[in-house]
Design a protein that fits this description.
mainly alpha, membrane, transmembrane, 81% helix, cell membrane, LrgA/CidA, LrgA, 0% strand, 2 domains
Length: 124
């Protein structure tokens, strides 16, 4: 029953994000709205981590299997995209490096900020 409640919460957030994507005339995917809603809900305490943690862990565990269909589609469409394959590879590697660098810098900043607050609390 716990998983059912947690999946319902995640699906409800997903449904709300789909509605936002339909009614807000921006070119933002529904998944981004959903991640923002989930993040803000967890950040503000409206939603507690233990209300979605187990279902989210399960979804993260099966995530590789969710990419099998898109991988198969990529293989079947290879003839159509082979002319642009080099540009696809460059864009994917470039965007991966940008995301890696951004995530690393943000993590370092958050760790330094957390350590700085801890130092202030100890009177340093």
């Amino acid at each position: 029953m716990k998983y059912l409640k947690q999946f319902f919460i995640i699906i409800a957030i997903s449904a709300i994000s789909e509605l936002l994507a339909i009614f807000i005339p921006l070119s933002i995917p529904a998944s981004i709205y959903g991640m923002a809603i989930l993040f803000l809900s967890l950040l503000t305490g409206v939603l507690k981590l233990d209300q979605v943690e187990n279902a989210a862990d399960l979804l993260l565990g099966i995530m590789p299997a969710l990419f099998v269909v898109s991988g198969a589609g990529f293989i079947t469409a290879y003839g159509q995209i082979s002319a642009d394959l080099a540009s696809w590879i460059v864009v994917n590697i470039g965007s991966t490096l940008v995301i890696l660098a951004t995530t690393g810098l943000l993590a370092q900043w958050l760790i330094r900020r957390k350590n700085g607050k801890r130092g202030e609390a100890n009177g340093q």
